[in-house]
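Hi V.,

You were right to ask for the full record rather than a summary. Here it is.
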Amino acid sequence: MKRTSGKNLIKSSAALLLAASMLAGCGGGAAASGNSGAASGAADSNAPVALTVHDIYGTDVADFTAPVAVKLQEATNVTLTNTVSSSSTDEEQAWTLMISNPDSMPDIVVASDMSRIEKLGLDGGLIPLEDLIEEKCPNIVAAFETYPVLRTASTASDGHIYQIAGMKEMSIANTWIIRQDWLDKLGLETPTTTDELYEVLKAFRTEDPNGNGVQDETPLMTRWLSAPDNFTEHGLSLFNSSNGLMVRQGKVVFDPMEEDFKVGMESLIQWYSEGLIDPEVYTRDDARNALYGNNLAGLTFDWSASTTQYNVSLAETIPGFNNVVMAPVQAPNGRTVVDHRSVPFAGAGITQNCANVDAALRLLDYLYSEEGQVLMTYGIEGETYTVDADGNYQFTEEMLKYDGGLTVARKEWGCLLHLGGVEPVELEYAVATNDATLAGYELYMAHPEWYPEDEYYGFNFKYTTEEAEEINVLLPSLKDYVNEKCMSWILGNGNFEAEYDNFVAELKARNVDRVIEISQNAYDRLKGK
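Predicted structure:
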């Protein structure tokens, strides 16, 4: 299958960005010429401007000496020094230490929690950027035009922009993936509803699709163990529900109190009791290698590119192994919705201490240019990626086979600096090394109706300082309680039907109605209602 040209798609996107920036009347001279490097405002002086950056994202401390980071600094005529020690592993602790002495804060700050960095802005520690962006940052302006959700995500509750949100276009990256070879062997069609999915999973369990004469198949598994709620979250998404706060067609709800949650939980409990779900779904490490490698797993929710790659890596040991991307199934309520999609993430803010705001803006604006997107997405041409005759970007074999995976390779080269920018959907095409992945991408991109506006997991509510203080006390308690109960019920510990009313009563006792009220007010304010 010939894939869509990543290069052409990026250039088309860049043309839209340029047109938007020209319409916005931003910049002039070279900035309006369409040269992405010039549009970022490269300095005329020969001496690079020194900037300090607080950049730790979770446990990941940015390394500005990595090759791509060096190229970024050369392109924008700055030098970057990370004020966070390379040995740091606690983002919250590092942040608290940094803000404890406002007079010594660095020029630029980064945080993984958007509300954390916005609070610093609301408290007066960051420069409001909206007017400066309009005046000096044509690429950011154009990105806001092309991706309106970026402007929304960048705008704090008081209407100012203190951090410039970034985004990974991941709508097609994580999908449901099913064993087509098992379907074919059992004469089954790809399921299109949750009822059909249940019948397929039962057949996977009872009809010996791996052909070893033993009922040892694990019809449904997931490997995401970074948080205890991940399987619950993915499982409930099959039923158009979730384990937390959601926006549903303009109305903020706490899904565990909704009817779709009850339907979903009852089904997941039944599926687990019948052996249709991995018995170690909450505890098994590296489930994909363990279960696929032994020809035991039939369905999962995972990264499409790497999960379909098992078709190649297991071709000799499991002849005919064939993972394919499956369309989202229709939930019992009649809706087909992809809850997981591209969600903006926190970008960088500029502190009141910054002595050269123009240089900081030049750096950040470059990340949203065509040249900046290519650099931060793929790295350095000829070393980390190539471009074929059709204009398709492709990572080198060394990158694709890097010990630890492509994400680790990109991190070590310096692509993942957390300063913002847009990582385009073409990245997914660049790592799609087989037709099964490409076919899945085309399937999802052909159905925008699966992605209704403002209905996805992880909506960015914009709370005021007072609202955030209240939410930060109430919401974690609710999340912990829900995740504990869901895991217990799915594993067969307790009686969901008998306990559900008391469960809702406990949610109310923990002020869930207040959380919904605050979040609805924040949502309405964001939408100008």
